[in-house]
Amino acid sequence: MLDPRRLHLLRELDRRGTIAAVAEALTFTASAVSQQLSVLEREAGVPLLERSGRRVVLTPAGRALVTHADAVLERLELAVSELAGAREGIRGPLRIGTFPSGGPAIVPAALAELARRHPALEPMVQEIDSARVSDGLRAGELDVALVHDYDFVPASPDTTVGQVPLLEEPVYLATGGAAGSAPATVPAARGDTLAELLGPWAASPWITARDGTTGHAMAVRACQAAGFQPRIRHQVNDFRTVLALAAIGQGAGFVPEMATAHAPGDVVLTRLPLFRRSKVAFRAGGGTHPAIAAFVAAARTAVGVTGGTSSPALR
Questions:
Q1: Which residue among 260, 275, 290 closes a domain?
Q2: 187 and 270 share one domain
């Protein structure tokens, strides 16, 4: 009989590439991972790994087994969800990941809704970039997470993760130059292209999220689609800082609508033909778990609540 925990290790090796990376992600020693994979090979009765220089790679049999591992682990997650549904009440810890701008905009209202409906549930929140959520879910560091993707940076297909849509919002170009107590909003004319809207700022410095994040990739690719390579001056992940820097003329930046509610009065916000989509992610098969379903419902309620607090200038 193949051990599901060892199947999980094999799947992680397939995705992370090295035994050392698997060990670090799952807080094991490399020797322990190697030992468990050797046991899995004996259970399977065929070689699953082979040496390639200093690395190990999966054999054809190993790759085939990973495909089955995805299905097996998803079925186990479904079983756990069904058993949890048979218990009375929703209780215990729920580890929640969130992208930074989702923290103030969605999470507090969602947690308040959870506390009202399920007081025995113990939510624990940590910030994490959307690009790392799949790893966190598979490693068991997270149970559920708020994630997002952008036009130009669609989420990569991942059969180990389930998702439900939460919110789609436009992205704005933030620049300096307004004078007043409220941010100036410039709606894009029908048919305006990215090149027409971003082109005037091609020679300006730019403010982006840090390299390696989805926000950074979106900014660079959007500018490239407009016909230029952005000259990046500042790299910050907090949209409030992006807005503050743009307001004092330190560069142009991109912000989703969710982040514009408290934009400073000296910033100009130009709506772009560009969107960000927020979703709730969980391990494949886990969407019916009562705690995860409760969080999805609470997040949807929170979006309805926070959607009403948007800046009037953006409506």
A1: 275
A2: yes
Sequence-ordered list of residues with C-beta below 8 angstroms from that of 68, at least 6 positions apart, any chain: 7
For residue 281, which of 98, 141, 114, 122 has the smallest C-alpha distance?
A: 98
Name residue 49's beta-bridge partners.
58
Confidence band, pLDDT 50/70/90 cuts, at residue 311: very low
284 and 148 in a common domain: yes
CA distances from 222 to 194, 199, 209, 213 (A): 8, 11, 13, 14
Helix (H, G, I), strand (E, B) or coil at 305: helix
Both 290 and 152 in a single domain?
yes
Residue 132, classified by CB atoms within 10 Å of its CB into exposed (0-12), middle (13-18) or buried (19+), is middle
Structure tokens at 132: 């790392």
Sign of CA dihedral 307, 313, 314, 315: positive
Is 193 strand, coil or helix? coil
For residues 160 and 11, the answer to whether their CB atoms sit within 8 Å is yes
pLDDT band at 27 (very low <50, low <70, confident <90, very high): confident
- Among 49-53, 57-61, 222-226, the range with the most confident prediction by mean pLDDT is 222-226
Distance CA 257, CA 172 (A): 7
**CA geometry: angle 83, 70, 164, nearest 5 deg:** 65
Rounded (10°) CA dihedral 279, 280, 283, 286: -130
| Tokens standing for residue 181 | 């107590």
Number of domains in the chain: 3
Q: Give the CATH number for residue 34.
A: 1.10.10.10
What is the distance between the terminal CA atoms of the chain, rounded to a whole angstrom? 59
- Give 232's DSSP letter: E
Report pLDDT for 190.
58
Eight-class DSSP state of 27:
T
Helices (H), 106-211: 107-117, 133-138, 194-198
Contact 251, 205 (CB under 8 A): yes
- Name residue 94's amino acid: L
Contact 274, 222 (CB under 8 A): yes
